[in-house]
Prior knowledge:
Layout: E1 3-11, E2 17-25, E3 31-41, E4 44-45, E5 53-54, H1 57-67, E6 73-79, E7 85-91, E8 97-103, E9 106-112, H2 114-132, H3 136-151
Antiparallel strand pairs: 1-2, 2-3, 3-4, 3-5, 6-7, 7-8, 8-9
Amino acid sequence: xxxxxxxLKFFNDDASATVQFQYVASKQGKLTLQLQxxxxxxxxxxxxxxxxxQLTTEELHHVCACVCGIRTKASGAFHGEQRSKGFQLHNNNxxxxxxxxxxxxxxxxxxxxxxxxxxxxxxxxxRLAMAWxxxxxxxxxxxxxxxxxxxxxxx
Length: 155
């Protein structure tokens, strides 16, 4: 059973969808994030359309790097008992970000504004700092170096 904590929620301008990010701990006790996009019907979020998706440790690293502009995208697949859930996150620079969540062939998307991306950046980096027991600035330095090594030419 996951342990739920602080959450961050956004609603899009046309009032058609909401996205929620929440601090959770995995079954193994690792600190991570859960995300869920829900359509709005008559002003109420319908959270039964897609089930929440819990990020793996590696996916949390990639999401943090994406919201910070170190990577242009992050994704995950084969989540849940039926291995039928996934997500894609794309950093659109000054235009914000685009998040898509899918489950059993059904997809919902949410466009984060630059301001929402900044809030998500602080929220996700703080969660990674908690998991690593370091400061947020240390997380940034580690992510920059880690993903720089991933793209460095190999000898």
